[in-house]
Amino acid sequence: MTEQDFIPQSYQRKVIGGSVTWQAPSNIALVKYWGKKEPQIPANPSISFTLDSCKTTTTLEFKRKEPADKNITFELYFEGKKKEDFKPKIKSFFKRIEAYCPFLTDYQLVIKTENSFPHSSGIASSASGMSALALCVMSLEKELNPELSEEYFNKKASFLARLGSGSACRSIEGGLIVWGKHKNIENSSDLFGIKYPHKIHEVFHNYRDTILLVDKGTKQVSSSLGHNLMEGHAFAEARFEQAHRNLDKLRDIFETGNLKGFMEIVESEALTLHAMMMSSNPYFILMKPNTLEIINKIWDFRENSGLPVCFTLDAGANVHVLYPEKDVEKIFEFIKNELVAYCENEQYLCDRIGDGAKRIDN
Ligand code: PMV
Hints:
The chain is of the alpha+beta class.
């Protein structure tokens, strides 16, 4: 598929107004996306677990404008209050998707959005937020063209979400999602995320993710700045190739349920992401002392207990602790007894692999 396939040719129906509500989850990357080209084309393929409880709920109200004009006009409410400072991000999202959703200028839009996780938790809401909004826009398109297939709907929702925030394209469907062209993953694309098409051992069906909130402050480096730092980075090419290789290695690991192999790749990916930031110009350290304390505790516990618990990191100090459902009792006990003390105000979030976004108004 190409970008052209996402431009609607005609509309079957006229829609005066209405409203739609979607709930979309966050996701956690196992092989990280870090580095991109315009327009939001990833420098390397990535794969993530779709999460379940960390999510955004967004309602889009639309009413046909009389008289019509050529601008996309909208109001924005966050947790019930008008939120002017979020508007520029949404405005540039709408600008980017206008060519693919020209019908948006026909409507006066009202967006009402809220997150299941606290705003100042250091958890990025761009993946769940952009995917929820993209899905709402797609539901409006579906009202105009009721015959859109579910497959096209999901692909275009992911395509639109990507234009809002790259990793958001991995938050439409559930389970394991790949984004970015990889020669050995059929139908993988730089334009949208797809469900991982190869065999997945049952141990990966019910994975847990306990998110330890080490630092709830706003991000020291925005992800767009971070991605840009990969341009001209001394290690960029080697890193991009490594991501391709890691996806190849994961094929057998996912198929056989090789948890040791899984943990090695996931932790190495997290540390490589941070190594890229530490070796860019300018350079950053986004981990905090407590991030390292937690990592060392996880390694000690794993060594002593033999249990398959590992960590991953986003572009920040918080730690995602990943482990299979079957070991939840002992590992969660360890997390509560030994790791939570390193969190800001002892705060953490319990999440797990989820089924993807849901429309909740009908
Ligand atoms: O989607 P963005 O532009 O916020 O970038 C996300 C980058 C990481 O979270 C660090 C990695 C990833 O693949 O999600």
